[in-house]
Write a structure and sequence with these properties.
Length: 152
């Protein structure tokens, strides 16, 4: 597995996730075209979305660290990269799911809270762009493997 192609495929996947969520966010905002800030207790989703967003944010970090910490230094670089990719996919999913749910709730209620939370999750997803430094810092690599990743 060539490192350049691996990182390029991760970046393309990340770009499509961010672009898809961005386009859906813009579409939903254009469709509703109004905000209300009512926090009366008749809509349980207004309380559920912040909880799901927090679970997605902290859960994505925790599960990613847990999955990458289970990778053994003795494993082959290809295996390490595959496990890293799986951890990254799960991390992105845990960020995207609450963001989409927030947009659906905004679409059905017009309340501004879920769309603001979704935009914050979108911004967080955007800054999670994969790169060589993240791979080196997240994986238990030997010095030889670090050189391979950094010099590719």
């Amino acid at each position: 597995m060539e490192i350049k192609n691996f990182i390029k495929s991760l970046k393309v996947m990340h770009l499509f996730l961010v672009a898809g969520l961005s386009i859906f966010t813009i579409w939903v905002i254009i469709q509703i075209n109004s905000f209300n800030t009512s926090t009366n207790g008749d809509n349980v989703y207004l309380y559920l979305i912040p909880v799901l967003a927090l679970l997605g944010y902290f859960g994505s970090q925790m599960i990613f660290k847990k999955m990458t910490s289970r990778i053994k230094i003795e494993s082959q670089l290809v295996d390490k990269l595959k496990k890293y990719q799986s951890a990254l996919h799960l991390k992105y999913a845990l960020i995207e799911i609450p963001a989409f749910l927030g947009l659906f709730v905004y679409y059905s209620t017009g309340n501004a809270l879920p769309v603001v939370i979704s935009i914050c999750l979108l911004a967080y997803l955007f800054v999670q762009k994969p790169n060589k430094e993240n791979i080196v810092n997240s994986l238990p690599l030997t010095s030889e493997e670090k050189n391979i990743v950094q010099n590719s």
